[in-house]
């Protein structure tokens, strides 16, 4: 751990208990500023694209199209949106060709995925990173998009966005977050936990470049040529519809790959519907988290609104970020 720098301060804590807790700040020295895609403005064209799973509920496409048009944007639908090759939105070549065409189109300022599912990792070996560098633009999604977004940001330095897709709920919260992150972006966006259900392993702060996404997808990236560099990163993780023993298995895989030794801090999402079918035969999810996180010497907190939830924060992958378990917040610096 001597390659990491800690600043530890003592503070008075826990009110009437009179206990003392430590604030641990682990910082990363950022070697270069990330490249932020141009902010969106009314009249811009936004493409809805399908890099992963096939669309079996096309009404979601029309819903997002109307939402974006109502906000003053033009909308372009990717030609493969309704293609189906089993569970994929067209063949690998169709999806990669469409993606490259949308990136190269100078009239398109943003790409929003229609859904996740599976398929992004199959595209990664053929992605033209030089083309993406020539035409930086907003690319947004989550779930299976975890591999695509983190790979693009790590290889190009361009910020990508973990945020809502066509299959998401575009409610007032999500629309306001869309405006705050992509239309009127502020380098000082501060996000607080919105619910009373909270988790932390210690009092502290940490800084680093933000990366992460869906736990299952991130674990599947380990050992590949596109495995992320976790060193001194702020990692965020979310999952949906998995039992606690599967969450335990996936976290164990990250632990044994030394991910938790490399990162500076960790933000947990909601882990929506990650409950045991037979609770009497399972550990509670909080005990799984305690097993993996209580003895870590980095700040860990949850449960933040991102990923498979209705109210979604948009997370800027590649942005320098600070987390604070004192007030359960994360800030883009």
TrEMBL record:
Pfam families: Peptidase_S66, Peptidase_S66C. It comes from the Bacteria. Residues 207-323 form the LD-carboxypeptidase C-terminal domain. InterPro entries: Carboxypeptidase_A_C_sf, Class_I_gatase-like, LdcA_N, Peptidase_S66_N, Peptidase_S66C, S66_fam. Residues 46-163 form the LD-carboxypeptidase N-terminal domain. The active site is at residues 143, 238, 308. One of its GO terms (molecular function) is serine-type peptidase activity. Keywords: Carboxypeptidase, Hydrolase, Protease, Serine protease. GO terms for biological process: proteolysis. PANTHER family: MURAMOYLTETRAPEPTIDE CARBOXYPEPTIDASE, MUREIN TETRAPEPTIDE CARBOXYPEPTIDASE. Belongs to the peptidase S66 family. This is Muramoyltetrapeptide carboxypeptidase. It comes from Lishizhenia tianjinensis.
């Amino acid at each position: 751990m001597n390659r990491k720098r800690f600043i530890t301060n003592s503070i008075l804590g826990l009110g009437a208990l009179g206990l003392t807790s430590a604030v641990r700040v682990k910082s990363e020295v950022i070697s270069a500023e990330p490249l932020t895609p141009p902010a969106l403005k009314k009249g811009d064209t936004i493409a809805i694209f399908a890099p992963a799973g096939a669309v079996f509920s096309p009404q979601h496409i029309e819903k997002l199209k109307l939402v974006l048009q109502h906000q003053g944007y033009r909308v372009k639908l990717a030609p493969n949106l309704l293609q189906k090759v089993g569970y994929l939105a067209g063949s690998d070549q169709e999806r990669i060709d469409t993606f490259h065409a949308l990136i190269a189109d100078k009239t398109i300022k943003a790409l929003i995925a229609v859904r996740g599912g599976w398929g992004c990792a199959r595209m990664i070996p053929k992605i033209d990173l030089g083309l993406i560098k020539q035409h930086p633009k907003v690319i947004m999604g989550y779930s299976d998009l975890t591999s695509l977004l983190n790979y693009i940001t790590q290889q190009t330095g361009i910020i990508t966005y973990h945020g809502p897709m066509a299959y998401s709920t575009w409610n007032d919260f999500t629309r306001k977050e869309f405006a705050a992150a992509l239309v009127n972006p502020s380098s000082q966006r501060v996000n607080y936990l919105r619910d009373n259900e909270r988790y932390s392993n210690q009092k502290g702060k940490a800084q680093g470049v933000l990366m992460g996404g869906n736990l299952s997808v991130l674990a599947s990236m380990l050992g590949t040529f596109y495995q992320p560099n976790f060193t001194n990163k702020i990692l965020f993780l979310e999952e949906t519809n998995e039992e606690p023993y599967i969450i335990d298995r996936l976290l164990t895989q990250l632990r044994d790959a030394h991910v938790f030794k490399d990162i500076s801090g960790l933000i947990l999402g909601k882990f929506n519907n990650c409950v045991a079918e037979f609770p009497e035969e399972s550990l509670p999810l909080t005990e799984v988290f305690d097993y993996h996180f209580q003895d870590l010497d980095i700040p860990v907190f949850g449960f933040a609104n991102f990923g498979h939830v209705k109210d979604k924060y948009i997370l800027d992958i590649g942005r320098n970020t600070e987390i604070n378990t004192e007030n359960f917040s994360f800030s883009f610096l």
